[in-house]
Specification:
- The protein is an alpha+beta fold and about 170 residues long.
- The chain is about 45% helix and about 25% strand.
- It has a 4-stranded antiparallel β-sheet. Strands 5-6-7 form a 3-stranded antiparallel β-sheet.
- The relative contact order is 0.14.
- This is YdbS-like PH domain-containing protein.
């Protein structure tokens, strides 16, 4: 998940997650279909034409398998959300890594949405609005959404508490 070298001094990881496994259902079914078609194709073509048609067909199916199954899995594996005691970090990317960091003190609103399927699978979309001009950050298909929402809300309130205390003292 998050590399220790990306943590600031006195920063600790509170929670780490990636999207729910449901996002891998379609790539799994695509991979299964490709393997079934590949098995049928290899048997139906046989060694006709010196085996070249079978080889070409299997290479095409292997490329489709990598594109339809392996790449979505790698995207899922490398897309992480990390909540620390000071910020929320989104990282993604297989070869080229990119990310977004939101300091907890800048977060104005934390909300979540769950559809019917999400409720059955205990996942949902976390929506975070901060004090920037950018659109709110939508974290889709977060597992155990209520727990993650509670953790981030608690941390956001804690980060705003010093400001509230200063306002009360003035």
């Amino acid at each position: 998940m998050l590399s220790e070298k990306l943590l600031l001094d006195d920063e600790t990881v509170e929670a780490e997650t990636r999207t729910h496994l449901k996002v891998l259902l379609v790539p799994f079914l695509v991979g299964l279909a490709i393997m079934l078609v590949g098995g049928y194709f290899a048997g139906a073509v046989g060694d006709s034409g010196g085996g070249t048609p079978r080889l070409v067909g299997l290479v095409v199916l292997a490329v489709l398998f990598v594109w339809g199954t392996l790449l979505p899995f790698l995207r899922w594996l490398t897309w992480t959300y990390t909540l620390t005691n000071r910020r929320l970090i989104e990282q993604k990317g297989i070869l080229t890594r990119s990310g977004r960091i939101i300091p907890l003190a800048r977060i104005n609103d934390v909300a979540y949405e769950k559809g019917v399927v999400d409720r059955m699978l205990r996942c949902g979309t976390l929506i975070i609005h901060d004090a920037s001009q950018q659109e709110g950050l939508h974290l889709h298909d977060i597992p155990r959404i209520e727990d993650f929402h509670r953790k981030i809300s608690r941390r956001v309130l804690d980060s705003h508490a010093p400001e509230a205390r200063r306002d009360e003292q003035s």
